[in-house]
């Protein structure tokens, strides 16, 4: 087949391509760098002729023009699986809605329960065999496209070609329309600069990692700090099996620590579902046969994760209560981020031979008024529970690491209070006493 001729046949302007969207449709924007800005802008220009078009995305950095152009949501209703900072602000303004999920279940949702009509996604340029690559959004894009009647790809030659399973690419024969974007630079998302507390916390976790371990790092300053510490450590032959690959892994690779040579699953290959970070990270991903991209239904399956011996999962949270419940996605009922894959990796690492799951936070935060608050609280009231107390394993702050697995309520209270900032410990003890989860002999 002459794929170049088929390409020309399917090539449209953005305004022409989005004419396939009808009132009442569900339109999929995939995730982060998979967001197609030219198609989004073109769809927003159809505002006055469309009613109640529902859009789904996640971790999109904005602006999302269909949301910006229609604050009353008469024409477009934007929904997100996982809030970026931009999407959080949309939710705060009442211009977006959150859709709860576990990443490992996302494909199951689409195939069984979700209506999806049109998918718009940024892809790489086409290869000689007629394939476009999803690159950074590989973990969710293929199964989303498979559920849609119309698939519009926005071609950007800056999108890396990530190799791996069949989920990494889509053939031109499956595509409805092709739009050329003009190849704007991809958004670079620098990892947060670790604080002194982040570094101290990471130093507490480092001794729990052995040579040959497989590492999952979540989002945030502390996981990034740990990646930098590992890069400077004496650890050897580490592996990667992660939902999101960030610059922390690239630092480990450059230092010779990340080899994947001793993995018990997919030896020699780092397994990822998404990637996000610097231009250098994207360049490392591009056509790298040592990296295996796959659907998050595979990457985040706890029973797949558990096949990696010595699986170490490291994720950040917002707060924890004295019962061992963990909130990683909301402040009260205000949505901050999302469940994402935290619980997937908590479960998977816990099932792994030699595996360990760490939930990490600094002990305090300072609000906009300058007041210091404890992240360890007596009990939650309205906060969304991300990891239930029955599945919380290691918890870490800059004051140390504790293992809550199999612990009683009074042991948990004692351990967690010892991770709190000293200024808050007496108050937490009083609250634990009121809740009858305190043993008097605990106090030291």
Can you walk me through this structure?
There is one protein chain. Helix 9 links the parallel strand 10 and strand 11. The chain is of the alpha/beta class and 444 residues long. The protein folds into two domains: 178 residues, Glutaconate Coenzyme A-transferase; 247 residues, Glutaconate Coenzyme A-transferase, CATH 3.40.1080.20. The radius of gyration is 23 Å and the shape is globular. It contains 16 helices and 24 strands. It has an eight-stranded mixed sheet. Helix 8 crosses helix 9, helix 9 packs parallel to helix 10 and helix 15 runs antiparallel to helix 16. 28% of the residues lie in helices and 21% in strands.
Q: Can you give keywords for this protein?
A:
444 residues; Glutaconate Coenzyme A-transferase; 2 domains; eight-stranded mixed sheet; globular
The CATH first-level class of the largest domain comes to Alpha Beta
| CATH architecture name of the largest domain | 3-Layer(aba) Sandwich
The CA-CA distance between the termini, in Å, is 77 Å
Q: What is the CATH H-level superfamily of the largest domain?
A: Acetyl-CoA hydrolase/transferase C-terminal domain
Strands in their spatial order, largest beta sheet: 13-12-11-10-14-19-23-24
Number of helices: 16
| Global morphology | globular
Strand content: 15-25%
